[in-house]
Specification:
It comes from Gossypium raimondii (Peruvian cotton). Pfam families: Dirigent (PF03018). This is Dirigent protein. The chain is mainly beta. The protein has one domain (about 45-185): Allene oxide cyclase-like (AOC barrel-like), CATH 2.40.480. The chain contains 1 helix and 10 strands; from the N terminus they run H-E-E-E-E-E-E-E-E-E-E. It has a 10-stranded antiparallel beta sheet, with no helix packed on it. The longest helix is centred in the first third of the chain and has 22 residues, at about 10-30.
Length: about 180
């Protein structure tokens, strides 16, 4: 009884792999994953605008109308080392100083800021700016990148400068001045 064995099993395996790769590449070529678009097809108009936004946000962690609340902490988080604590905030903004971040350093008061500035009135109503960056809160000026946006700020890029206007050591409440410089269409 004769057995049917290919003379070179590795050659057969190689041939099957090669045919599989060729068919995969052919499928990718005929149905591309990406394509080039004209910016005007998305309603983007040249030239870009550069906007400067100036406001204050009020971070109230104690008192009657709290706007920032700790929601998690690491087992090693203490008052003297708040590293690993996570808070959420919904701070009001004002145009004058009248009244999701996480602590990201073991050696200084530094926050990882991941937040959206949501506009609910005026010419930017319904739009957002997204900021993600490190904020060493006791530095005089902190700079964080604007990484995107929506609405009027779709495809936005720029940076936000934060300066502490007031900070109450007893309560932890703060007013922070923001200057945001953003390119957008």
């Amino acid at each position: 009884m004769a057995e049917n064995h290919p003379e070179h099993p590795s050659a057969t395996a190689f041939l099957l792999i090669a045919l599989s790769l060729i068919s995969t590449l052919a499928a990718v070529e005929s149905n591309p994953f990406s394509r080039n678009l004209s910016p005007s097809s998305l309603g983007l108009k040249k030239p870009e605008k550069l906007s400067h936004l100036h406001f204050y946000f009020h971070d109230v962690v104690t008192g009657k109308n709290v706007t920032a609340v700790r929601v998690a902490k690491a087992p090693t988080t203490t008052k003297s080392s708040p590293f690993g604590a996570v808070a959420v905030m919904d701070d009001p903004w004002t145009i004058s100083p009248r009244w999701i971040y996480a602590l990201a350093s073991q050696t200084e008061a530094s926050l990882l800021m991941a937040f959206n500035f949501a506009f609910v009135e005026g010419k930017y109503n319904g739009s957002n700016l997204s900021v993600l960056g490190r904020n060493p809160v006791f530095s005089a000026v902190r700079e964080m990148p604007v990484i995107g946006g929506s609405g009027v700020f779709r495809f936005a890029r720029g940076y936000a400068e934060a300066r502490t206007h007031t900070f109450d050591l007893k309560t932890g409440n703060a007013v922070v001045e923001y200057n945001v410089y953003v390119f957008h269409y």
